[in-house]
Automatic annotation (TrEMBL):
GO molecular function: peptidase activity
Tagged with keyword Protease: yes
Coiled-coil zones: none
Name this protein carries in UniProt: Collagenase and related proteases
Keyword entries, A-Z: Hydrolase, Protease
Family: Belongs to the peptidase U32 family.
InterPro entries: Peptidase_U32, Peptidase_U32_C, RNA/ubiquinone_mod_enzymes
Any one of the GO BP annotations: proteolysis
Domain Peptidase family U32 C-terminal: 333-415
Length: 422
């Protein structure tokens, strides 16, 4: 049974954990930091397990590090590919470039890559990826002795197992608290390679577990057996999304050093909304642990970005069938991300907005800012960059201007309700 989220048995909080956010590109890095992340993790153009993300060039990585450091945030770079022989010649130079960019650590899963980092950049902290599958304190102690400064624990651990590991090692512990869950153990998936020729363990996952499947009997080709959840197929390989925002006291009491949000492939809107909600929850708890109460508005905010049904994963025991998504609609989305603020003209009172989805005069939108919101605005007018009036902003990435009575900070998010919630 899941404990009440206000449980007195959560134990006293230790030090305030780091809130670690995904940064799939430079824009998402800036949004994550501005909306409250203590640190971000990203991938370069090579050796990361998110090859389909935009990722960072060397120049962008250096710029992202400067931006984060100027605001007191840290940057970790994923070098968590399972390396083959051909990768080893290029890895030392790449690791040195990450170090030169000023990264605060690298995330690795391969012992050989760990050894290369230690030999070529001994001053660069190493975090052990969740793909390394650390599920017990003996393994954690081994990696600690190998010089790893932080371990990203396997997602298949319960809260009690995490507490026991914490009691036996001094190394920092990082735990996923939100985002997509891989159906394979610690992300070691062969489905993508087998079905699509894309190696998930080298950053090129085709998300084969999210496909729709049906069952065909061998001797009756073409005859589909009735196992589907709806007329289009079954989603029995697809996990629900992890969401632990209701259990901040329990997580903090377990002595976890870093709360990690999954999602380098997700949108700016996802990064802003999820980071902000967890920031508020963590800050509220550590401000007054004894009187902390979970605010349902935080969960509502998370629900306004695209998500699957939620699960607590393995935190309170094996999830079984309740951890799988079997519905006909994979994603829920009650709001559409329509624009992001790029500036504000004080003399005209116009907010400069880069459009992401269609919105029109007369629409009611919510505006979420890094430090406030949501604010409600009925759009009374839209202008193009030359000042010509528009009825709607129909083109993706189009720059438009809308009247707003006060300054809107850059990277504020505009969203509007969707009629059917999907």
């Amino acid at each position: 049974m899941k404990p009440d989220s206000f449980s007195k048995g959560a134990g006293p909080p230790g030090k305030k954990p780091e809130l670690l956010a995904p940064a799939g590109d430079l824009e998402k890095l800036k949004v994550a930091v501005l909306y409250g992340a203590d640190a971000v993790y990203l991938g370069g153009r090579h050796f990361s397990l998110r090859a389909q993300a935009a990722n960072f060039s060397e120049e962008e990585m250096a710029e992202g590090v400067r931006f984060a450091h100027a605001r007191g945030a840290r940057v970790y770079v994923a070098v968590n590919v399972f390396a083959h022989n051909k990768d080893l010649a290029r890895l030392p130079e790449y690791i040195q470039s990450v170090y030169a960019a000023g990264a605060d650590g690298v995330i690795v899963s391969d012992p050989g890559v760990l050894d290369l980092v230690r030999r070529h950049c001994p001053g660069l902290p190493v975090h052990l990826s969740t793909q390394a599958n650390t599920t017990n304190w003996a393994s954690a102690r081994f990696w600690e002795q190998m010089g790893v400064s932080r371990i990203v624990l396997a997602r298949e651990l319960s809260l009690e197992e995490i507490r026991e590991i914490r009691s036996k090692v001094g190394v920092e512990l990082e735990v996923f608290i939100h985002g997509a869950m891989c159906i394979s153990y610690s992300g070691r998936c062969l489905l993508s390679s087998y079905l699509a020729g894309r190696d998930a363990n080298r950053g090129d996952c085709a998300q084969s577990c999210r496909w729709r499947y049906s069952l065909v009997e061998e001797k009756r080709p073409g005859e589909y057996l009735p196992v589907e959840e709806d007329g289009r197929g079954t989603y029995i390989l697809s996990s629900r999304d992890l969401c632990l925002i209701e259990y901040i006291p329990q997580l903090a009491g377990a002595g976890i050093d870093s709360f990690k949000i999954e999602g380098r492939m997700k949108s700016v809107n996802y990064v802003a909304g999820v980071v902000k909600a967890y920031r508020q929850a963590i800050d509220a708890y550590f401000k007054d642990p004894a009187n902390y109460r979970f605010n349902p508005a935080w969960l509502d905010e998370i629900g306004k970005v695209s998500n699957r049904e939620f699960t607590t994963g393995f935190l309170f025991g094996k999830p079984g069938g309740t951890g799988q998504h079997c519905g006909s609609d994979i994603y829920r989305r009650s709001y559409s991300f329509v624009g992001i603020v790029r500036g504000y003209e004080r003399d005209t009172g116009l907010a400069v907005v880069e459009q992401r989805n269609r919105f029109a005069v007369g629409d009611e939108v919510e505006i979420v800012t890094p430090q406030g919101g949501p604010l409600i605005l009925r759009i009374k007018a839209i202008y193009d960059e030359e000042g010509n009036p528009l009825e709607a902003a129909p083109h993706p990435r189009q720059i438009v201007k809308i009247p707003f009575g006060e300054n809107l900070p850059d990277y504020s998010i505009l969203r509007k309700p969707m009629e059917n919630g999907y």
